[in-house]
Amino acid sequence: MVLDVGLRSGRWLNAADEDSGSRSIVLGSELASEFSLMGSEIRDVLLGGRTYGVVGILERVDLVPTVNNTAFITQTAAEKDFDVESEPTALYVRVQDGTTNESVEILPIAIALGGSETVSTEVPSSLLEAEAQVDKTLQAVVIAMGALALVVGGVGIANVMSISVIQRSSEIGIRRALGHTRGIIAVQFMIEAFLVGVGGGWRERSSGQVR
After folding, report:
1. How far apart are CA 202 and CA 209, in angstroms?
2. Where are the domains of the chain?
3. Cα distances (Å, whole numbers) of residue 97 to 3, 64, 100, 131
4. What confidence category does residue 210 fall into, taking pLDDT thresholds of 50, 70 and 90?
5. What distance in Å separates the CA atoms of residue 179 and residue 185, rounded to the nearest whole number?
6. Can you name the residues that pair with 45 across neighbouring β-strands?
7. CB 86, CB 59: distance < 8 Å
8. CB-based burial of residue 203 (10 Å sphere; 0-12 exposed, 13-18 middle, 19+ buried)?
9. pLDDT beyond 60 at 1
10. pLDDT value of residue 98
Protein backbone atom coordinates (compact mmCIF):
# COMPACT_ATOMS: atom_id res chain seq x y z
CA MET A 1 0.00 0.00 0.00
CA VAL A 2 1.18 3.51 -0.78
CA LEU A 3 0.32 4.78 2.71
CA ASP A 4 1.76 1.62 4.32
CA VAL A 5 -1.19 1.32 6.73
CA GLY A 6 -1.11 -1.66 9.04
CA LEU A 7 -4.09 -3.61 10.35
CA ARG A 8 -4.83 -3.55 14.05
CA SER A 9 -7.00 -6.63 13.60
CA GLY A 10 -8.80 -8.62 10.94
CA ARG A 11 -8.06 -8.32 7.23
CA TRP A 12 -8.36 -5.98 4.27
CA LEU A 13 -11.10 -6.19 1.63
CA ASN A 14 -10.32 -8.81 -1.00
CA ALA A 15 -11.51 -10.02 -4.39
CA ALA A 16 -14.05 -12.36 -2.82
CA ASP A 17 -15.77 -9.42 -1.12
CA GLU A 18 -15.81 -7.53 -4.43
CA ASP A 19 -17.11 -10.42 -6.54
CA SER A 20 -19.80 -11.50 -4.09
CA GLY A 21 -20.96 -7.95 -3.36
CA SER A 22 -20.96 -8.72 0.35
CA ARG A 23 -21.36 -5.83 2.76
CA SER A 24 -17.88 -6.02 4.28
CA ILE A 25 -16.27 -2.96 5.81
CA VAL A 26 -12.87 -1.91 7.14
CA LEU A 27 -12.81 0.93 9.67
CA GLY A 28 -10.22 3.56 10.53
CA SER A 29 -8.85 3.54 14.07
CA GLU A 30 -10.77 6.54 15.43
CA LEU A 31 -14.01 5.48 13.76
CA ALA A 32 -13.64 2.04 15.32
CA SER A 33 -13.15 3.67 18.72
CA GLU A 34 -16.42 5.58 18.27
CA PHE A 35 -18.17 2.25 17.70
CA SER A 36 -16.32 0.85 20.77
CA LEU A 37 -14.66 -1.79 18.63
CA MET A 38 -11.43 -3.17 20.09
CA GLY A 39 -10.77 -5.54 17.19
CA SER A 40 -11.07 -8.91 18.90
CA GLU A 41 -14.84 -9.26 18.55
CA ILE A 42 -17.05 -9.71 15.47
CA ARG A 43 -19.38 -6.76 15.07
CA ASP A 44 -21.80 -5.22 12.60
CA VAL A 45 -22.22 -1.50 12.00
CA LEU A 46 -24.90 0.53 10.26
CA LEU A 47 -23.75 2.50 7.23
CA GLY A 48 -26.48 4.53 5.55
CA GLY A 49 -29.11 2.38 7.28
CA ARG A 50 -27.55 -0.84 5.96
CA THR A 51 -25.78 -3.47 8.02
CA TYR A 52 -22.10 -4.06 7.23
CA GLY A 53 -19.86 -6.66 8.82
CA VAL A 54 -16.55 -5.35 10.18
CA VAL A 55 -13.77 -7.49 8.72
CA GLY A 56 -10.80 -5.29 9.71
CA ILE A 57 -9.63 -2.28 11.70
CA LEU A 58 -6.70 -0.14 10.58
CA GLU A 59 -3.83 1.17 12.65
CA ARG A 60 -3.62 4.91 13.24
CA VAL A 61 -2.38 6.89 10.22
CA ASP A 62 -0.51 10.12 11.02
CA LEU A 63 0.37 10.94 7.42
CA VAL A 64 -3.30 11.26 6.33
CA PRO A 65 -5.44 11.75 9.50
CA THR A 66 -8.70 11.58 7.52
CA VAL A 67 -8.10 7.84 7.04
CA ASN A 68 -8.60 7.37 10.78
CA ASN A 69 -12.25 8.43 10.41
CA THR A 70 -12.92 6.62 7.13
CA ALA A 71 -14.98 3.51 6.39
CA PHE A 72 -13.81 1.39 3.45
CA ILE A 73 -16.22 -0.78 1.46
CA THR A 74 -15.96 -2.55 -1.90
CA GLN A 75 -16.75 -0.80 -5.16
CA THR A 76 -19.61 -3.24 -5.79
CA ALA A 77 -21.26 -2.43 -2.46
CA ALA A 78 -20.73 1.32 -2.99
CA GLU A 79 -22.43 1.23 -6.39
CA LYS A 80 -25.29 -1.00 -5.20
CA ASP A 81 -26.08 0.70 -1.88
CA PHE A 82 -25.06 4.32 -2.45
CA ASP A 83 -25.14 4.76 -6.25
CA VAL A 84 -21.65 6.27 -6.36
CA GLU A 85 -19.57 6.80 -9.47
CA SER A 86 -16.93 4.21 -10.27
CA GLU A 87 -14.23 6.77 -10.99
CA PRO A 88 -11.87 7.55 -8.07
CA THR A 89 -11.85 11.02 -6.55
CA ALA A 90 -8.58 10.72 -4.61
CA LEU A 91 -5.23 9.17 -5.50
CA TYR A 92 -2.29 8.60 -3.15
CA VAL A 93 1.16 8.51 -4.74
CA ARG A 94 4.55 7.72 -3.21
CA VAL A 95 7.47 9.42 -4.94
CA GLN A 96 11.22 9.05 -4.67
CA ASP A 97 13.14 11.25 -2.26
CA GLY A 98 14.10 14.57 -3.80
CA THR A 99 11.41 14.50 -6.51
CA THR A 100 8.50 15.89 -4.48
CA ASN A 101 8.35 19.32 -6.10
CA GLU A 102 8.59 17.93 -9.62
CA SER A 103 5.91 15.34 -8.89
CA VAL A 104 3.53 17.99 -7.51
CA GLU A 105 3.85 19.92 -10.78
CA ILE A 106 3.57 16.94 -13.15
CA LEU A 107 0.84 14.85 -11.49
CA PRO A 108 -2.11 17.23 -12.20
CA ILE A 109 -1.17 17.33 -15.88
CA ALA A 110 -0.68 13.57 -16.08
CA ILE A 111 -4.00 12.80 -14.35
CA ALA A 112 -6.12 15.34 -16.23
CA LEU A 113 -4.56 14.39 -19.61
CA GLY A 114 -5.54 17.73 -21.08
CA GLY A 115 -9.15 17.47 -19.88
CA SER A 116 -11.23 20.06 -18.09
CA GLU A 117 -11.06 18.36 -14.68
CA THR A 118 -9.39 20.33 -11.92
CA VAL A 119 -6.74 18.29 -10.10
CA SER A 120 -5.17 19.52 -6.87
CA THR A 121 -2.22 18.02 -5.05
CA GLU A 122 -1.17 18.02 -1.41
CA VAL A 123 2.01 16.95 0.34
CA PRO A 124 1.04 15.45 3.75
CA SER A 125 4.69 14.97 4.73
CA SER A 126 5.12 18.76 4.80
CA LEU A 127 2.26 18.99 7.28
CA LEU A 128 3.92 16.38 9.49
CA GLU A 129 7.20 18.28 9.40
CA ALA A 130 5.40 21.51 10.36
CA GLU A 131 3.59 19.70 13.17
CA ALA A 132 6.87 18.27 14.47
CA GLN A 133 8.42 21.75 14.41
CA VAL A 134 5.46 23.11 16.40
CA ASP A 135 5.87 20.32 18.95
CA LYS A 136 9.55 21.17 19.37
CA THR A 137 8.69 24.84 19.84
CA LEU A 138 6.07 24.00 22.47
CA GLN A 139 8.55 21.77 24.29
CA ALA A 140 11.12 24.57 24.29
CA VAL A 141 8.52 27.02 25.65
CA VAL A 142 7.50 24.58 28.41
CA ILE A 143 11.15 24.02 29.39
CA ALA A 144 11.79 27.78 29.43
CA MET A 145 8.71 28.37 31.59
CA GLY A 146 9.82 25.63 33.98
CA ALA A 147 13.30 27.15 34.24
CA LEU A 148 11.80 30.58 34.86
CA ALA A 149 9.58 29.16 37.59
CA LEU A 150 12.62 27.58 39.25
CA VAL A 151 14.53 30.87 39.11
CA VAL A 152 11.59 32.81 40.57
CA GLY A 153 11.12 30.20 43.29
CA GLY A 154 14.84 30.25 44.09
CA VAL A 155 14.85 34.05 44.36
CA GLY A 156 11.84 33.89 46.68
CA ILE A 157 13.49 31.31 48.93
CA ALA A 158 16.73 33.31 48.97
CA ASN A 159 14.77 36.39 49.97
CA VAL A 160 13.12 34.48 52.82
CA MET A 161 16.52 33.22 53.96
CA SER A 162 18.09 36.68 53.94
CA ILE A 163 15.18 38.16 55.93
CA SER A 164 15.39 35.26 58.38
CA VAL A 165 19.14 35.84 58.87
CA ILE A 166 18.65 39.58 59.44
CA GLN A 167 15.80 39.06 61.95
CA ARG A 168 17.73 36.38 63.85
CA SER A 169 21.10 38.11 63.95
CA SER A 170 21.03 38.16 67.76
CA GLU A 171 20.37 34.40 67.85
CA ILE A 172 23.25 33.84 65.44
CA GLY A 173 25.53 35.96 67.61
CA ILE A 174 24.66 33.96 70.73
CA ARG A 175 25.24 30.67 68.95
CA ARG A 176 28.57 31.91 67.64
CA ALA A 177 29.52 32.85 71.21
CA LEU A 178 28.63 29.34 72.32
CA GLY A 179 31.04 27.87 69.78
CA HIS A 180 28.86 27.07 66.76
CA THR A 181 30.75 27.46 63.52
CA ARG A 182 29.52 29.35 60.47
CA GLY A 183 29.13 26.05 58.64
CA ILE A 184 26.74 24.63 61.23
CA ILE A 185 24.63 27.79 61.20
CA ALA A 186 24.61 27.85 57.39
CA VAL A 187 23.44 24.21 57.28
CA GLN A 188 20.61 25.08 59.67
CA PHE A 189 19.38 27.89 57.45
CA MET A 190 19.72 25.74 54.34
CA ILE A 191 17.57 23.02 55.93
CA GLU A 192 14.98 25.60 56.94
CA ALA A 193 14.93 27.02 53.40
CA PHE A 194 14.52 23.52 51.96
CA LEU A 195 11.59 22.79 54.24
CA VAL A 196 9.99 26.13 53.35
CA GLY A 197 10.32 25.36 49.64
CA VAL A 198 8.93 21.83 49.95
CA GLY A 199 6.11 23.00 52.21
CA GLY A 200 5.19 25.85 49.88
CA GLY A 201 5.19 23.59 46.82
CA TRP A 202 3.07 20.97 48.58
CA ARG A 203 0.59 23.61 49.74
CA GLU A 204 0.31 25.05 46.21
CA ARG A 205 -0.24 21.60 44.77
CA SER A 206 -2.92 20.79 47.34
CA SER A 207 -4.75 24.07 46.75
CA GLY A 208 -4.62 23.45 42.97
CA GLN A 209 -6.24 20.04 43.41
CA VAL A 210 -8.96 21.52 45.64
CA ARG A 211 -9.85 24.06 42.97
Report:
1. 11
2. 7-90, 96-122, 125-210
3. 15, 19, 7, 20
4. very low
5. 11
6. 52
7. no
8. exposed
9. no
10. 74
